[in-house]
Design a protein that fits this description.
single chain, alpha+beta, Jelly Rolls, nine-stranded mixed β-sheet, four-stranded mixed β-sheet, binds 2-oxoglutaric acid, binds fe (ii) ion
Length: 297
């Protein structure tokens, strides 16, 4: 894992932002936080949330999904993981594409997005050993296709009608749901560093299925306003070109601060994916589950 500061002599090292902690983290998080129930009943609150998303690039919504609903989704995920472990007898191959570390049935992100069924993809280390592989993470594409029950639960969690409205008002562009995912992280240390998900207009909503209350658990981290800051994008671009780093990596954030988004199970974070973000590396024993929805034009 790269350290939080880089030495001047180590010119090829990416420069990471400072992570906000303590009261400052809390204040910065509270300033972009809204109660979901307020959003539902008040147009004014909805407009304020949309405006905050437009300016800051990220908002947090409290209590989007009830504890019962979260519990029901987690029970379904547990059963699914059990079926994946016993894939030879469980019949999982009839309802999903199961990519295990030593048994790849599908290849490539776009293939997963375009698949006609759910894809359960275990991320593995890169063949060339480069960092940021998310090795150990289980990424489930189209979880709503696993069963009617899963579809019903996920629909209730994602609140797509309202969230689409918030996003649409924030960017004045109609957006569509492109892909739903579940991220399961258990002691994932080698997470991808700060990056953007391309330069086109794209948002994600992250509905947390477990509590995220420390850095060890691997919170989603975001550099506020970076979605509209051309300077840090250009700085990173030039550095990346010179050092053979991918163009969407935010490698030059030394002067910035990143906000780790702590959240309770049932809370949702929405962000513009043009901005600099990452999942923080986890402690070996930590677990995190997130239901993700991607919105695009
Ligand atoms: O794991 C995370 O929290 C963030 C992953 C990410 O970069 C993304 O969903 O675009
Ligand atoms: Fe990303």
């Amino acid at each position: 894992m790269p350290s939080a500061t880089s030495t001047p002599t180590d010119a090829a090292q990416p420069r990471l932002p400072e992570l906000l902690q303590g009261n400052l983290r809390e204040q910065e998080s509270n300033s972009i936080t809204f109660n979901f129930s307020d959003l539902v009943r008040s147009k004014r609150c909805l407009l304020k949330a949309a405006w905050t998303l437009n300016r800051q690039g990220i908002i947090r919504l409290r209590q989007v999904a009830s504890a019962d609903l979260i519990e029901a989704v987690n029970a379904q995920i547990s059963q699914l993981l059990d079926d994946a472990t016993h894939y030879k007898t469980s019949g999982i191959d009839d309802i999903a594409y199961l990519n295990l570390p030593n048994r790849r049935v599908l290849k490539g992100y776009n293939t997963f997005v375009d698949a006609d069924r759910a894809v359960i993809n275990h991320r593995v280390e890169r063949p060339d050993g480069r960092s940021g592989s998310d090795a150990g993470m289980i990424d489930i594409f189209h979880p709503e296709r696993l069963s009617d029950e899963m579809k019903r639960l996920i629909n209730e969690c994602l609140q797509e009608r309202l969230i689409r409205r918030v996003i649409m008002i924030s960017c004045l562009t109609p957006m569509r749901v492109k892909c739903r995912n579940i991220y399961l992280n258990r002691g994932v240390k080698d997470t991808r560093s700060y990056h953007c998900d391309g330069r086109s207009l794209k948002f994600k909503s992250f509905l947390f299925l477990s509590n995220i209350d420390s850095l060890d658990i691997g919170p989603y981290c975001y550099v506020k306003t970076s979605h509209r800051n051309r300077r840090s994008w250009k700085l990173s671009r030039a550095f990346n070109e010179e050092h053979g780093i991918g163009m969407y990596e935010y490698s030059q954030l030394g002067d910035c601060q990143a906000l780790p988004m702590f959240a309770a199970a049932g809370d949702m974070v929405i962000s513009s994916q043009r901005g600099a973000h990452r999942g923080h590396p986890q402690h070996t024993d930590a677990q995190r589950a997130v239901l993700v929805n991607m919105y695009q034009r």
